[in-house]
Amino acid sequence: MNHLKNETSPYLLQHADNPVDWYPWCGEAFERAKSEDKPVFLSIGYSTCHWCHVMAYENFENSETVELLNKNFISVKVDREERPDIDSVYMTVCQAFTGSGGWPMSVFMTWDKKPFFAGTYFPPTPRFGMPSFRDVLNAVTMQWGTEREKLIQSAENITDMLKNTESVKTNKVNGDIVETAAEMLRKSYDSIYGGFGSAPKFPIPHELMFLMYYAKINSDETAQKMAEKTLIQMRKGGIFDHIGGGFSRYSTDRYFLAPHFEKMLYDNALLIIAYSAMYSLTSSKVYLETTIKTADYILCEMTSPEGGFYSAQDADSEGVEGKYYTFSVDEITSVLGDKGKHFSETFDITEHGNFEGVNIPNLLKSGDLDTDFVAEFQKLYEYRKKRTKLHLDDKILLSWNSMMIAAMSMLYRVSHYEKYLCAAENAQRFIEENMSDGEHIYTIFRDGKRSDTAFLEDYAYYIAALIEMYNSTLDNKYLMRAEELCAEAVKRFSDKNGGFNMCETTELFKNPKELYDGAVPSGNSIMAYDLIRLHQLTEKEEYRECAEKQLDFMSAQSQDYPSGHCMFLLAKLIYEAPPPRVIISAKGSPDISNLPFLANVTVVQADNKYPLLNERTTFYVCRGNTCLPPSNMLSEEL
């Protein structure tokens, strides 16, 4: 009997009709494993994961494999986006066993949740040096029966090792971690095609944002050029959806041509922020156009009627990765008619194809970012929607929604288009109405139900979103809410050894404390940012003290690999070289349309301390210990 039918997770529901006797993560599954004396097979993935789909139809629909699973194991399915704590702990296990990680994640453990073997995708037959999944199941079954003590000892060893990896570093930092990170990025930078390292290339916006701020405060043209070239290359490449807008998860090649086609809310949120920031630095319209195309995609395809943002769109259509996004020459000609030839020449559409016999539209060869194909884009967009469909993961995740709220708010500040601020306000209102109860907030909302859990990242990202909403509106209700939730986060997640744990309490063998800035910045990095910005906005001593403790802790933790902590280092730079402080003295509501992209802004009523100049709204601007004379206009150099 499959036990997933009443779940709300789209990923779990995808497996509700498997012949595997799946359980969700629950006490019943582990009690049954104990009573029947069976090992637990834990499978972790997410609904838009291509290789999760592959492993499912190759193994979880295979009668011989299913028989082995149902006879010898208790099988548990987890959505990594629903339970990031479980994913974090067992990903560490997987990396310890194999040296790498990924999804689907496959973990074998005892009934008391102690793992003794882990891997990722296993094929149905041995290939590429990987054993078949059936071979793995048979080997585990045999060892469970004949070498149980060895497996249990292995489980004890790995859990003891991971429990003891809690850092014993002091808060002493050797060297300049900011400079070290910048140098590491310089060395890994691909000067020909942009990005860092070799294939696959992930768009890691927080690395680019770190470089931008580093360049700004150090007048370092090289650092800014690295960020610029990367953003331009991604905009030209197939990783960007030229037809419908938005970015795919990552590029499988060095050139940003062939993406892994799934689109994630968090990638697009962070990239909107990065492109908006670059536009604020350069005033180059290509960055603004890219943010607008990406944001409009989110509003068109990834926004619920109630205002919340959906999580992801799948890479696969009709079982084929990328089918939704690729075209043949004949299709282009059929849809566009006489304009088809020019479109094909511009976007590298050829007879033989640029990707597995078909074509991913891109501008890498033509380099023409000034194309005017608005009508053609719309025709192709409508055509591909009718041709095939994408699976939509329609759950609302608080942390990812918070990233998009911040992104829409920042885009509003550079574009001055009200619809983006409206989208941010609607999503924030959705959270308050559906995923919040006073100081308690909740990770997921779907199908009229919310989760009963919340993690550090939920609080950290939502606080950051509220700070950005304040920056765009100067409405104190957002700042007050951010302060309320920050106090709650500090109370719930602070660890006596420094930093913040992911969970308030945990049933797992350790409470994860995520520090590394991977695909998304860690909760600890975002908390550093939150505490710093709240201190700069409110000038309250309690935030300065907490911020400095977090800076000391994270500086020590990041010194072995500084470039892996770029969001934290951005926060550190903002603390050490703060954005300008702008005090607006006004009698009524001031015009805030020309405020700096990143600033600490306060509105006060005109008085003896902040009198009006010429009886008009007056700006008092300070950077560090230097203050400019009061003025009725903001300097463009801010």
TrEMBL record:
Bilayer-crossing regions: none
UniProt-listed Gene3D superfamilies: 1.50.10.10, Glutaredoxin
Entries under InterPro entries matching the protein: 6-hairpin_glycosidase_sf (IPR008928), 6hp_glycosidase-like_sf (IPR012341), Ssp411 (IPR024705), Ssp411-like_TRX (IPR004879), Thioredoxin-like_sf (IPR036249)
Annotated GO biological process: carbohydrate metabolic process
Pfam families assigned to the protein according to its UniProt record, in alphabetical order: Thioredox_DsbH
Ranges of residues in domain Spermatogenesis-associated protein 20-like TRX: 2-162
Name of this protein: Spermatogenesis-associated protein 20-like TRX domain-containing protein
